[in-house]
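Format notes (please read before filing issues)

Several people have asked whether sequences and structure tokens are stored in separate files. They are not. Every record keeps both together, in the order shown below: the sequence lines, then the token lines. Line labels are part of the format and must not be stripped during preprocessing.
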Amino acid sequence: MTPTATPTATITPGTYTRDEVHSSVGFSVRHFGAGKFRGSFADFDASLTVGEDQSLALTGTVKVDSVQVKEPRLDGHLKSPDFFDVERYPEFTFLSTKFVAAEDGRLDVDGDLTIKGTTKNVHATGELTYTHDDGYGGQRVGVELQTTIDRFDFGVNFDSKLPGGQPVAGKDVTLHIELELIKPAA
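Then the structure lines:
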């Protein structure tokens, strides 16, 4: 993706909210030591606030009960205390603490990620794009981020082993966030 404008110099201040159709939050984790297990969340929200000084702040909330994987029978296991424990912890949250966009659109974002009641500061990298006029009078910001977390740090402790001792699911989980955020015409 190539930025359409100098990211931090031209974004109109205000709050940009998630375009539901063009945004996604997903994850991947090593499975059986051979492949990747992938999933996503259907119900989430995000917003980007751009200050008059071009400061940027990103917030997000994921409804954990909306987890989706290719095998629907696994949804229940992911929602159980073995993994996400949705009855006790219905949401994941993120609040940026540092948001740096380079002139070429590259992003470095630090923030507080809360999963299962545990908050840890994480670092994500990605890309920022901006469209001043989306053809409907609105403005759009694209934010793509990726980070890898250790799921055990957040209390996601399911640790079943294969006969040779290799874990069924790896400890490192990569989070993939693709957001298209809109500031509607005034």
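For reference, the curators noted about this record: The first helix runs from residue 7 to 10. The CA atoms of residues 75 and 165 lie 25 Å apart.
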